[in-house]
Amino acid sequence: MTTHAPHASHTVTLPASLDEAVAALTAMPTAVPVAGGTDLMAAVNAGHLRPAALVGLNRISEMRGWQYLDGHALLGAGLTLARMGRPDFAALIPGLAAAARAAGPPQIRNAGTLGGNIVTSAPTGDTLPVLAALEATVIIAGPGGSRREIPVSHLLAGREMLNPGELVGFVRVPLLHAPQTFLKATGRTGPGRATASVALVLDPARRGVRCAVGAVAAMPLRPLEAEQWVASLIDWDGERGLVPEALRAFGDYVAAACIPDPAPPEDGSEPATLPPAALHLRRTVAALARRALGRALS
């Protein structure tokens, strides 16, 4: 379905299926796909973007639900943040539900989508560190009914990109059936953009801890050495608890890995120190990581 607004210079196409949406994007290379439009409309209102055509995705029902598949959840990219925050979804993937509930005021959560968070790749996107910690993958729909699957982290890091005519259709998330936590710090009281966020999940089957830090860099950061170190301290067959000193050390380890000290000067002069704002951010990340692990193990 295509509608032309009177006296408007752009076209709005409303496909009913994922393949129809891909076909529309292939036929109109300058078209921009839109679902919730929370980031798109902000860019348009700020004068940063003037799309020649829009491909609306809200009528594609296959992208707005989820299903179980071989130990994974297959999530439609059109799932709204509000829908992911509900109790039934929280029972499935608690970390992602917590991030969705923290994503902003109701009007943002009602419109914003999982796929939009991924494709926009804003550093402060709340679902992104959770997806990185869960090692989720995206299923990309392309022309001619083609499908390909890549890690979310590859897309966020720019290691792999969407080709012309491609859309993120689904997100595949492993179901770990283990504690998951998401915590964020904002610059003000109440919902707001994260100044730092931490997602942490336990993986008892592989006796691992996975942690991702958001908002402090262009993409979520995984402190792999800190993950491996703390996983080696956990009694996976027992209580799984850690003493406060170990939790504090883990937080410091994560923070130092994500916000490292400046490299020493090559001329042997006095080493530089982090500015006060960076030191404050490092302390914030350390506190979030410590609390996230403590809650997951409690």
Quickly list its features:
alpha+beta; 5-stranded antiparallel β-sheet; 12 helices; Enolase-like, domain 1; 21% strand; Uridine Diphospho-n-acetylenolpyruvylglucosamine Reductase, domain 3; disordered N terminus; 36% helix; Uridine Diphospho-n-acetylenolpyruvylglucosamine Reductase, domain 2; 4-stranded mixed β-sheet; 298 residues
Folded structure, characterized:
By secondary structure, the chain is α+β, with helices and mostly antiparallel strands. The chain folds into three domains: 11-56, 2-Layer Sandwich (Uridine Diphospho-n-acetylenolpyruvylglucosamine Reductase, domain 2); 66-174, Uridine Diphospho-n-acetylenolpyruvylglucosamine Reductase, domain 3, CATH 3.30.465.10; 180-297, CO dehydrogenase flavoprotein, C-terminal domain (Enolase-like, domain 1, 2-Layer Sandwich), CATH 3.30.390.50. 36% of the residues lie in helices and 21% in strands. It has twelve helices and twelve strands. It has helices spanning 18-27, 38-45, 81-84, 87-92, 94-101, 106-111, 114-120, 127-134, 152-157, 224-231, 244-258, 276-297, and strands at 2-3, 11-13, 31-34, 53-56, 66-69, 72-76, 137-141, 147-151, 167-174, 180-186, 194-203, 208-214. It has a five-stranded antiparallel β-sheet with strand order 5-6-9-7-8. It has a four-stranded mixed β-sheet with strand order 1-2-4-3, with helices on one face. Strand 1 and strand 2 form a beta hairpin. It is globular, with a radius of gyration of 21 Å. The model is unreliable at 1-9 (pLDDT under 50).
